[in-house]
Amino acid sequence: MATRLPGVVTADTAARVRGLVKDFGERRVLHGIDLDIRPGEFVALLGRSGSGKSTLLRALAGLDKATEGELTVPGEVAVAFQEPRLVPWKRVAANITLGLRQPNPKQAAADALAEVGLTERADAWPLTLSGGEAQRASLARALVREPDLLLLDEPFSALDALTRITIHNLVLELWGKHQPGVLLVTHDVDEALLLADRALVLADGRIARELRIELPRPRRRDHPEFLALRANLLAELGVTPEGTA
Ligand code: ADP
Ligand code: MG
């Protein structure tokens, strides 16, 4: 059973999940997940393809019903997916505030686009945006909802490496400014270690591992603790480092 109380923000949690089970037909994908995300906490969710990461995120977003268990998401929720999912027949600015009840949507869209560095593209058609620009627009559309919980489902995985670095920095900046709780689904261990306070590994429908990442930001990939955490997470994901048997 899902409990959702939009607009009521409690100080102690951005999301609480207890005993979440999700079946698709005969198949059990999530076997009883417990998860807490504190307000303003950045959590990364790792796992192999098909491990149920998106299923968990969709349950938190209220897009799918849980088979069993309790979900409590007290505040406003916004989601950004791997594909930016912009409506092609509306201009970028109109996409940002689509479906949003706001007294001044034009201003809200302009403010959000300025925050993600897309002011110049406000009147553009979505299909003319680059991949990085489209993901910025997707972030602006999420942020304009002033979420207490921001759900990100592999939003950067289709971007080239350089664009990804820029957008990682942008996400950290926006997170610092707005302080939503974040659940970032990713299969990229480095992305999790660069961004999150905590990394979870989903395997066999359960949270198999939890790691705190206490490195100061901005983080460096060559920091010894970064490398140690990375080895740890890769082992958990069943990836053998190159050069070893
Ligand atoms: P991940 O995001 O970790 O790659 P998903 O959560 O998308 O994994 O999927 C987990 C498993 O659940 C997969 O085996 C997938 O095929 C299955 N699944 C996901 N959505 C559905 C659905 N709507 N109907 C049936 N099976 C689904
Ligand atoms: Mg997925």
Question: How would you sum up this structure in a few lines?
Answer:
With 245 residues, the protein is of the alpha/beta class.
* Average of per-residue pLDDT values: 93
Q: Give me the secondary-structure category.
A: alpha/beta
* Spatial gap, N to C terminus: 46 Å
- Provide the spatial order of strands within the biggest beta sheet: 6-7-8-4-9-10
Query: What's the structural domain tally?
Result: 1
Question: How many strands, what sense, and barrel or not for the largest sheet?
Answer: 6 strands, mixed
Percentage of helical residues?
25-40%
Q: CATH homologous superfamily name?
A: P-loop containing nucleotide triphosphate hydrolases
Walkthrough of the structure:
The protein has one domain (3-240): Rossmann fold (3-Layer(aba) Sandwich), CATH 3.40.50.300. It contains seven helices and ten strands. The chain has helices at 53-60, 92-96, 105-115, 131-143, 161-178, 189-195, 224-236; strands at 2-4, 15-24, 27-37, 42-46, 68-73, 77-80, 149-153, 181-185, 198-203, 206-212. It has a six-stranded mixed β-sheet, with helices on both faces. α4 (131-143) runs parallel beside α5 (161-178). The relative contact order is 0.17. Adenosine-5'-diphosphate binds at residues 24, 29, 47, 49-55. Magnesium ion binds next to α1.
Write the layout of secondary structure elements.
Elements: E1 2-4, E2 15-24, E3 27-37, E4 42-46, H1 53-60, E5 68-73, E6 77-80, H2 92-96, H3 105-115, H4 131-143, E7 149-153, H5 161-178, E8 181-185, H6 189-195, E9 198-203, E10 206-212, H7 224-236
Parallel strand pairs: 1-5, 4-8, 4-9, 6-7, 7-8
Antiparallel strand pairs: 2-3, 2-5, 9-10
Bound molecules: adenosine-5'-diphosphate (ADP) and magnesium ion (MG).
